[in-house]
Amino acid sequence: LGARLHRLETLLASWRNLGERLEGFGTWLVATAREKGGNQRHAQAARSYQELEAALDMMELKLACRQPSSQRDAYLRVRPLGPQLPGKDGLKILLEMYQGWARRIDAELLVLNDPLDQEEPTLVLRLIGPQSYGLLQQEGGLHRFSMTRKESGRRQSALLRVEVIPAAPADFRLTEEELHCEGGLLRSPTNGRYGGRPRSWFGALHLESSTLAEGRNSLELAANEQAVRDYLAALIAWSPGADQGARVIRSYYLEPD
Known about the structure:
Elements: H1 2-35, H2 40-64, E1 74-80, H3 87-104, E2 108-113, E3 123-128, H4 132-136, E4 141-148, E5 155-166, E6 179-185, E7 200-206, E8 211-217, H5 221-237, E9 248-254
Parallel strand pairs: 4-9
Antiparallel strand pairs: 1-3, 1-5, 2-3, 4-5, 6-7, 7-8
């Protein structure tokens, strides 16, 4: 099984390299088709490239779903890199996008940490359903959001880091002696900016590694506590991928405000 997975990973790396080499050519090809005023041959070439790109993406996704960890639930941890706008707008857009993904694959999406108006907002989601991690792991990396301000005409950009974390294996357990936990009900709950009405918060610290997991959401306190413990177990069991924070995998252009 190990040798088979190694072959699949090698093949997957080759396809990624091919995709990167095609990306620049495809951008040029689409731009050329537009410059030529809809020339039929250029337009057909552009469509063929886009179909090839989609086929490669789907093949990469199917290969990723063959790994054992792909069958687990997935956590998405989304953090703006710096305070610049439109970072918080990007959090809302990504939440809505992943909610749509969950509906299409008939999965449940749990908002574990609703960032509200925190100074350093972190959005944490859990996607619950078959092959959730396999379907989402290619989202790991940097997402760039750009907006042109009406009053100045200047473009502002923000980067959001998305980390995709598989749920811990079923036999992975944390003992009470390893943890420091605290939580409670929010005294003055307000309407959540990114979905839900927060009613409780809970935090769990793994003493040996100093790993912290927090949940601020619309769950009842007991359910929030269990959700945070599960999330902490996933963080402890997780081995971060080297490319999950290094490359821009998608860019978004927002309408001027």
